[in-house]
Every structure is written in structure tokens, then in C-alpha cells.
Amino acid sequence: MSDKYDVTFSVNGDQRTIHVEARRSLADALREDCGLTGTHLGCEHGVCGACTVLVDDNPVRSCLMFAVQAEGARVRTVEGLAHGDKLHPLQQAFWDHHGLQCGFCTPGFLMLAVGILERDPDISEAALREGLSSNLCRCTGYQNIMKSVLAAATEMRKWA
Fold first, then answer.
1. What is the phi-psi region of residue 143: left when phi exceeds 0, alpha when psi lies from -120 to 50, beta otherwise?
2. Domain spans of the chain?
3. Which of 3, 39, 91, 133 is most exposed, with the fewest beta carbons within 10 Å of its own?
4. Homologous superfamily of the 4-80 domain (CATH)
């Protein structure tokens, strides 16, 4: 029998309290305790980036973070990007520029790109490519992912 802890944090702007074991990953807590299944689990070793979410505006591999470490934090998942029926500029760009193939890596790429572009809206293409290189696409859709993120960066700068 293991101890469980109450963890209170903000998820996509909503205050949540969950009751979890100390060893439960943030990814599992988001999926199973919060019902936010957009965060995908791939390698579960922090290598692929499919589980990337923003914690206090920083991209984090949620498979490597314990849910209890999110106490008091602001967590953003792919479900928090759109505003109602209006897609976030990155989501729209992925749609418009075919930045997704099977879609498995897409939530992680979206959250990583949001974190990068919100921190540095004028990032160079080379620096953006370097930043996005930490996530893997098993369909080899990197060209269209880059095209999508570059298009979204232009759109996001208009609103900044």
C-alpha cells in the first residue's frame, strides 16, 4: 500500500485537485485523473517528446515529471490551445500546412512550439529547428512540421 497525496494545480486555466501516489507521472495524472488524453505517451523515457506540456510556461516531458511536482503550478496541455471552436494559430497552421501525418507526435510538437514561440516570437529559423529537434516524428513529417511552425510564428507575431 502506498501513500497518496493531494496535488492542486491549474490545468488549462482550471484549478484542479487530484489524489495521486507519489510515483504517478504528470502524464498519467493528466490522462487518467484529469481526463485530458491529448497528452500522448510514447517512449515513457523522455526521449520522444509526445508527452510535452507546458508547466509554468516551460516545455516539460510530462512522463519524466511526477504529478506531485506540479503542486501550485500552471499546466497547459494541447486541450488548452483552442478557444472554443477557434483553433490556436499553431493548430491552424498544422492543419493548413499538413504538419501532421498519423498525429501521434502532434500534441507534443504543438506544446513545444508554443513554449518556444511564446518565449521568443522572433526566433530564427535555425534556432527554431534546433529547438524542435528534441521531439520525434515517427512518420518523418519534419518538413511540414517546420513549415507549419514557421507559418504560425508569423501569425502569432501579429497578435503579440
1. alpha
2. 4-80, 89-159
3. 3
4. Beta-grasp domain (3.10.20.30)
